[in-house]
UniProtKB/TrEMBL annotation:
Keyword Flavoprotein on entry: no
GO-annotated cellular components: extracellular matrix; extracellular space
The gene coding this protein: 106072821
Organism per entry: Biomphalaria glabrata
UniProt-recorded name of the protein: Uncharacterized protein
UniProt keyword annotation of Transport present: no
Amino acid sequence: MNNIYSNYLPLVTITQSMIQSLPVSLRYLETQGNNFQSVNEGALQFMPPNLSYIDAGGNRFLYGKYIHDLHSLKTLKVLKLNGGNNLHKIPTTEPTSTFSDNCWQGNSNARPKPLIFNLPPNLLCLDLRFSGLAYILSELTIDENNSLDSMILSTNYFPVLQGPIHGLFKLSKLFISGCFVQLINERMFQNLDSLQELRLRNNELDYFFRDASRKPIFRDLKNLKILDLSINALTVFDGDILKDLDALEEINLSQNNMWQFNISISNMSNLHMLNLSHAQLGTLPLK
């Protein structure tokens, strides 16, 4: 037997004994849509030795210490934990307790340690498209010993880009398209000065850009060359949105509903592509 399909198990915690009951020949494991919330610490090391695919989407996994056991899954190539319905901030500290055997264990009074995500040191592209992620994209710290050049988060659910993101000093491409983004905090991009390409197409940023109290969110992106804000239902694009972005080469504002475009682009000596197609503009009052 190489596959197990499980539609429902009324369990909360995945235990070592449950894992050890799986056949050693198992390569694919699908447990979507159950009531799993946690995994006993240390249990993952008893997974079948040739397991390469796990889809545990649509469960209720809580953030716990078991995440540090994922490194024991040496043969795993695909891990899907998508499909949750709740919206949370990304955790910034290590868990001080864990959910095990239907109860919380650990010292809830212990001082939490900062959580630092570790990436493979030679990883160049992290692609999480269509992963079912649903988060407020809050402060995120990644170990600076990484080579990440591209991060693709498109087609998930990130209504708020809060940030900041720490540790991605080599990141040049960031795609957050089709993520229902409605709000961007001024700190979101403050540590991403190496960024050269930013794709925010197909979001919901009209009200955000119409807000007079909005801060200049792109001001730290001094090396940005490509900015894509197409398909955002934008009606107004003015003020200091693109202030100090002198390195810009391409701006895509196509397929919006803009009736006003009052942006100074005269200082952009490197700009060679401005896409305003299907934007319903009556005039181009470029300063």
